[in-house]
Task: structure prediction
Amino acid sequence: MRRTLILLILYISCTNSDKKIGYDFETHFEKSKGLETATYQQTIQFYKDLAKVYSEISIQAIGETDSGSPLHIVTLNLNSEFDFSKIRKNKKGILLINNGIHPGESDGIDATMMLFRDIVQGKFKTLKETVLVTIPIYNVGGSYNRNSTTRTNQNGPKNYGFRGNARNYDLNRDFIKCDTKNARTFAQIFHLVKPDVFIDNHVSNGADYQYTLTHLFTQHNKLGGDLGEYIHNSMMPKLEQKLALKNWDITPYVNIFNEVPEKGFSQFMDSPRYSTGYTSLFNTLGMMVETHMLKPYKQRVEGTYELMKSMIEIIEEDRIVIQQKRIHSKENLHDYTKSYPLDWEVDTTKSSVLNFKGYEGELITSEITGTNRLKYDRAKPFTKEINYQNFFKPSIEVKIPNAYIIPQGWHNIIELLKLNQVEMTPLKKDSIIKVESYRISNYDTRKTPYEGHYQHYNTKTIKTEKDVNFIKGDYIISTNQDAFRYLLETLEPQAPDSFFNWNFFDTILQQKEGFSPYVWEDKALELLRKNPKLKEAFELHKKNTAQFNNNWYAQLDWIHKQSEFYETAHMQYPIYRVK
Result:
């Protein structure tokens, strides 16, 4: 019996020892000496192996993507607790890292693999009160589409994925409209995790300069309140300082195209179509990492690694402050005496000065086109003070309603609201409710397609109050909820990324019933005879507008639109506001 027990102990001991020895946790990036990036299969297998060996790591397949493969989330919690409701109850800080949204920009994929490994192997001991969650590769379809040529401006790796997903969508334009399965699954993951801080890892296009790292924080005026003040005056400077101590220079994202940075530039405005614009709707502090495309791949990955380490250090130091400010921001938003800003413009009365490290650039004659072209000279580095416009002011504002009412027939909108955990209550009976109603008075439409849509912009509305009949099952949605920002940014038609501007309501823009001119002529004449004020307005319009005066059909149509025969659904925005 004793001999059997000894053999059993030896077997278990050898098995546990072999468990770690049998796995190779050197990444493909490291094996290639920093020249190559891991494939989707290599990446997922790496995390599966880590999870087998280290109880602090969990990998979970969630939802679908357009590629047919699922998305995964990998969670690192030193307490080995992976129930997010319990994690939040224990006041842990939560950092969500998204990688491979553009798989050719693969720096974060490799950096995060090494970061998770190094933490569980005890090489990075700062992490104590923070839980890390990563989507290893978000654009799975693009990752499958590997090549070595489509990133024309980029210095490595040798092979990489393609920007478009399996249906050729740019996923970093899809967060609010959710045309792809990827975006719908991201929403599911985001609301499961509810991160305090979000990082999306990218590689930049644009100018040439000395920095490997640039940061693109969500715009602080747009974020607003305590959170906006914190991200601008605390989190961003702390990140820059921590990286400087590690000999990593970083500057704000250089938001220019075919220009020299020393002319100055503005901060990028991240509307809700972008990842950080979307996550900020739920008071998550967000930033994109933008490494410089022309720097060597190894250097870019190492910089991304150090940046994420620095952000973890900030969360460890400030997690309670961050969590309190997030709660405070939610409470402050629910003030119905206020207006809500829907769109923004640069505030030219304020700016910042950057001590910018660039290269001299000049315009020389192109040997191809014979016109001027931009040429940088890396033999001529400089440090110059430049103007950085990182303050914005509202350009469109709207008074906050107490609630919205959505007829149940708009099921596509309702599905997206439910996906984003919007609380809504169906009417229990048919009801007549006094509401604020919008008619679309004007809009422009893009002439070329953009991410599967011909977007509207410059949308204008006319608001009136009226009693509207709603039926049992229509939804009333209070704005006093966590999804407050999401509701305003999607349901107010003037917002740049509103569902209206993304063509979700285009059926209301087409008139369904018309008139036969030979029939309407007689009815229109009778209408003008019985309504002198209408006739006066008609004649005045003819007198003042030559084009109208010379267009007989436009004249008949104008009269028709003033009559009871004109359909009420045309240009009527079908979502209503309750004051």
